[in-house]
Amino acid sequence: MNAKQRHTRLIKDEAKRLGFLSCGISKAEFLEEEAPRLERWLKNNAHGEMRYMENHFDKRLDPTLLVEGSKSVVSLLLNYYPNEFQTEDSYKLSKYAYGTDYHYVIKDKLKELLHTIQTEIGEVNGRAFVDSAPVLDKAWAAKSGLGWIGKHSNLLTQKVGSFYFIAELIIDLELDYDTPVTDHCGSCTACIDACPTEAITEPYVVDGSKCISYFTIELKENIPTDYKNQFDDWMFGCDICQDVCPWNRFSKGHNEPLFNPHPELLSMTKKDWEEITEDTFKKVFKKSAVKRTKFSGLQRNINFLKD
After folding, report:
1. What is the 3-state secondary structure (H, E, C) of the chain?
2. pLDDT tens, residue by residue, 173-232
């Protein structure tokens, strides 16, 4: 086993020990196929008010601009599929937001992974990314053979579906690279047919400005009244396109204690949500991604569903 193989094995073993679902590695280089796609998506204003998507266009496509001298993009998946779910009579919360904000959970694991690489291998420079920088997570994960991009534009894996977070470590170390897997969506259009706001405008293309997740999380002003009664009770995020995907029959509950929800969250009914106080909000969502909408944002979403 040469040094490159040894280092690759070490990184994948350590990723597994840290609880990641899988780890794939690709060469840090310009994402040629993604460039025209991203340009077209932005030109069509599919990012709505998410103006940050327009920034750092070059960096999104070229990891060597993010980490000088980078050679490898290590992509990692972390399962968040819950073991228990909200009660039926409830406004719905995207499953990824049940527990502690994933940014913190994953950042800590990535720091530990980088520390191990530096301890075991030597001087390796790198940066950890958890969807908080201009990195095209799904494109790198697909390039690294961790799955294929489905028609709903999420990464899909045959054995585990799509309920997982994607993160990267971009490092200046040459490794053995994985190859992409084939697309297994076939003629299925379940996600396209099920989207109540018709946000999946064509296979593999999502108009972010029509997505329920966008309206309930990213949009800061009032939700357009044209979308009244189209949210299917989703008050933060939306999982419809994932819930109907046949590959998600294979989803298994996560084993990350930090992703377990606050005990009160699962039993809250529509009435409880309608009467939620700021104190309860702070208690239930103490370290949650839901804090992004703030109390007033969640109230706005609930009122939009309720009226």
Report:
1. CCHHHHHHHHHHHHHHHCCCCEEEEEECCCCCCHHHHHHHHHHCCCCCCCHHHHCCHHHHHCHHHCCCCCCEEEEEEEECCCCCCCCCCCCEECHHHCCCCHHHHHHHHHHHHHHHHHHHHCCCCEEEECCCCCCCHHHHHHHCCCCEECCCCCEEECCCECCEEEEEEEECCCCCCCCCCCCCCCCCCHHHHHCCCCCEEECCEECHHHCHHHHHHHCCCCCCHHHCCCCCCEEECCCHHHHCCHHHHHCCCCCCHHHCCCHHHHHCCHHHHHCCCHHHHHHHCCCCHHHHHHHHHHHHHHHHHHC
2. 999 999 999 999 999 999 999 999 999 999 999 999 999 999 999 999 999 999 999 999
Domain boundaries, the chain: 3-85+98-171, 190-251+262-306
**Catalytic site includes residue 131:** yes
Q: Which CATH architecture has domain 3-85+98-171?
A: 3-Layer(aba) Sandwich (3.40)
* Structure confidence by residue, pLDDT tens digits, 242-280: 999 999 999 999 999 999 998 899 999 999 999 999 999
The one catalytic residue among 131, 172, 176, 243: 131
211 is in an annotated binding site: yes
Q: Tell me if 61 is assigned to a ligand binding site.
A: no
**Does 51 count as an annotated binding residue?**
no
